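Thread: "does anyone have the structure for this chain?"

Original post by V.I.:
We have the sequence but no experimental structure in hand. Need at least a predicted one for the grant figures.
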Amino acid sequence: MKTITLLLAVWVISTINVYADDGCASQTSDSDILQCTLKAKQQAEASLNAAYSAAKKRINNSYAADKNLAQDYLRLP
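Reply from O.Q.:
Generated one for you, tokens below.
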């Protein structure tokens, strides 16, 4: 549960940073805005995926002595 909370906090912080630095506001055409927002979305997703992968590695390392418990913990929705 702590990991899920941590992941959510990382995601919120990274999302705030993306919105705070809205470089897409300077775009003039609709197609430029679309391309810019798609790029920003991909960057945010990559950041979130990296944080999630790092959290999974930490869980596996923390529960190295009990692999079954680690797998149970990782299966939680």
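V.I.: this helps a lot. The radius of gyration is 17 Å.
O.Q.: and The chain has three helices and no strands.
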